[in-house]
Recover the amino acids of this structure.
C-alpha cells in the first residue's frame, strides 16, 4: 500500500524511472491472460492490457473505451512484468479507475475514442505514470508539460505499416537536433513554433534529448521494423497488433525482442527473421479512413 | 590505466550506469555478445526487467561465460534487476529464471509493491557517511534471506537493500538514476 511505503511515491524520478527500466525492451499488446503469458515467455518488458488490439478496433468501429477491470486484473495476475492499460484522451475518470487497479503505467491513447475535444488529462496529480503519443516535438512537449513521463510516437496503430512511426520519430529527433544548434534568442521562436513551454525547449537545447524516454509505437510488425526504429533513435518499442495478428505469435514475439536488443547486428536480425511465417497482413497507412494519429493536439 | 568495466547492455538503464562510470574515471564497455567480455575488469548489471534479461542472456550465449567469470572472482555490481540476476535464490520470479548466485541472498521480486508504490528516500549507508544516499526504488526487490558471508550495508524498514559479498555489490535501488555517485565509487574502489 502506498501509505506504508518507506519514502516519497509518485515523484518525477520514480515515474520516469520505470520508463528508463523498460528501455531496450518490447511492450506487447495482449487481450487475455494467455497472450500475456506468451508475451512474458518471449521476453516482453511489459504488457499493455486491452480488450481489442488496434487492428480489431479499426475493423469493428464504434466507440473504443477503457478495458473491463476484470480483464486487466486477470492479466495482472498472470504475469510478473509491468502491466499498462489505456485510458481515453482527456478521460481522467478512466485514469483514476486504472490507478486504483494498480496498473503500472497508463497510456492516454489515441487508439481509444477521445473523451475531451480540447484537453488531455492533467497527469501531475496522479501517482501512476503516464505515456502519451506524439506525432511531432511540439505535441511531445505539450504532453510532457501536462505530466507525461514517457513519450511514444503515434504511428498509425493497427495498420502494420511502420511509415508513420518513422515519420513521427524523424520529426521529433530532427527538431531536437536543430534546437541544439539554436542560439538563446532563437529558442523563443522554437517555443512559439512548437507551441510548447520555453523551459522545455531550453532543456532540450542543453541535453539534446527529450526530458523523458522516447519510445516507438504504431505499425511495427517485424523484427526488422523494430531494428529500424531503434536505429532511428527509439529507446524501446510497443508492438500492438503485430504479434497476435501474425501467423506465429510466439515466434514473432521472441524475434522482435531479440531484434530490439541486437538492433545494430544485422546477422542476428536476419537469424531471428528466418522462417517466422506471415507477419500481420496490415494495410497501407495512407489508405485508411480513420486516422488515429490525428486524435490529440 | 582506467578500469574497463562492462555494462550488460541487453536491456534497461545501461546509459545511466555508463555515464556514472565515465564520470568516476572508469572506461565503460557495452556487453551484448560473449566476445565483449574479453578484457573487462568488472561487470555492471543494470536495472530493467530481470525476466527479459535472463532470456536474452541465454539467447546471446552470455549466461555461461558470465557465470564463469563471476566464479573466477570478477567484481560485479547489480542494481534492482541486476541484484536479482546476481542473487542465489529468487522468489516471485518465473520458475525458469536462472540467476548467477554470486551473492548468497534470497530476493523477492517487486516486493515493495507495484509502480504506484515505487518511491525515493534518503538512505543511511554508514560506510558512505553523510549526507544519506539519494535512493530511487522502482518496483524494487526485497532481500528476504542473507547468508553468513554477506555484509548488509543499508536497510529500508528492516529489509537489506545494499549488500556485498567479496567483490560483488548489489543494490535494490538505482544510484545510477539519482546520480549520487558514491555507491558506484564504493564499487570501483574495490577494483
Amino acid at each position: 500500500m502506498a501509505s506504508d511505503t518507506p519514502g516519497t511515491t509518485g515523484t518525477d524520478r520514480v515515474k520516469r524511472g520505470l520508463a528508463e527500466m523498460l528501455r531496450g525492451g518490447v511492450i506487447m499488446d495482449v487481450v487475455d491472460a494467455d497472450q500475456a503469458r506468451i508475451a512474458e515467455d518471449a521476453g516482453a518488458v511489459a504488457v499493455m492490457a486491452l480488450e481489442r488490439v488496434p487492428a480489431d478496433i479499426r475493423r469493428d468501429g464504434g466507440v473504443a473505451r477503457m478495458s473491463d477491470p476484470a480483464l486487466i486484473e486477470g492479466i495482472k495476475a498472470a504475469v510478473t512484468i509491468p502491466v499498462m492499460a489505456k485510458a481515453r484522451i482527456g478521460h481522467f475518470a478512466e485514469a483514476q479507475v486504472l490507478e486504483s487497479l494498480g496498473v503500472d503505467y497508463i497510456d492516454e491513447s489515441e487508439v481509444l475514442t477521445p473523451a475531451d475535444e480540447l484537453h488531455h488529462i492533467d497527469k501531475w496529480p496522479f501517482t501512476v505514470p503516464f505515456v502519451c503519443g506524439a506525432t511531432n516535438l511540439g505535441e511531445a512537449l505539450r504532453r510532457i508539460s501536462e505530466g507525461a513521463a514517457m513519450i511514444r510516437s503515434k504511428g498509425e496503430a493497427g495498420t502494420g505499416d511502420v511509415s508513420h512511426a518513422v515519420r513521427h520519430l524523424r520529426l521529433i529527433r530532427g527538431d531536437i537536433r536543430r534546437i541544439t544548434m539554436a542560439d538563446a534568442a532563437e529558442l523563443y521562436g522554437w517555443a512559439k513554433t512548437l507551441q510548447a513551454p520555453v523551459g522545455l525547449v531550453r532543456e532540450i537545447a542543453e541535453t539534446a534529448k527529450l526530458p523523458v524516454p522516447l519510445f516507438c509505437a504504431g505499425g511495427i510488425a517485424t523484427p526488422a521494423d523494430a531494428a529500424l526504429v531503434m536505429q532511428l533513435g527509439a529507446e524501446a518499442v510497443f508492438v500492438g497488433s503485430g504479434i497476435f495478428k501474425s501467423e506465429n505469435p510466439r515466434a514473432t514475439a521472441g524475434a522482435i525482442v531479440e531484434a530490439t536488443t541486437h538492433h545494430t547486428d544485422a546477422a542476428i536480425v536476419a537469424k531471428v527473421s528466418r522462417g517466422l511465417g506471415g507477419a500481420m497482413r496490415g494495410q497501407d497507412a495512407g489508405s485508411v479512413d480513420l486516422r488515429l494519429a490525428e486524435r490529440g493536439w | 590505466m582506467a578500469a574497463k568495466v562492462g555494462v550488460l547492455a541487453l536491456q534497461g538503464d545501461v546509459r545511466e550506469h555508463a555515464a556514472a562510470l565515465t564520470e568516476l574515471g572508469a572506461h565503460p564497455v557495452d556487453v551484448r555478445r560473449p566476445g565483449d567480455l574479453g578484457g573487462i575488469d568488472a561487470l555492471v548489471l543494470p536495472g530493467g526487467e530481470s525476466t527479459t534479461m535472463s532470456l536474452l542472456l541465454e539467447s546471446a550465449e552470455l549466461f555461461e561465460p558470465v557465470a564463469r567469470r563471476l566464479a573466477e572472482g570478477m567484481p560485479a555490481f547489480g542494481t534492482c534487476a541486476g541484484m536479482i540476476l546476481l542473487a542465489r535464490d529468487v522468489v516471485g520470479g518465473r520458475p525458469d529464471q536462472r540467476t548467477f548466485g554470486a551473492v548468497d541472498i534470497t530476493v523477492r521480486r517487486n516486493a515493495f509493491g507495484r509502480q504506484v508504490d515505487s518511491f525515493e528516500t534518503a538512505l543511511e549507508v554508514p560506510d558512505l557517511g553523510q549526507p544519506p544516499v539519494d535512493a530511487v526504488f522502482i518496483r524494487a526487490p526485497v532481500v528476504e534471506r542473507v547468508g553468513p558471508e554477506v555484509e548488509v550495508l543499508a536497510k529500508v524498514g528492516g529489509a537489506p537493500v545494499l549488500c556485498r559479498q567479496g567483490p560483488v555489490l548489489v543494490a535494490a535501488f538505482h544510484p545510477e538514476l539519482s546520480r549520487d555517485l558514491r555507491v558506484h565509487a564504493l564499487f570501483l574502489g574495490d577494483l
Observations:
- Residues 4-188 of chain B form a domain with the Rossmann fold fold (CATH 3.40.50.880).
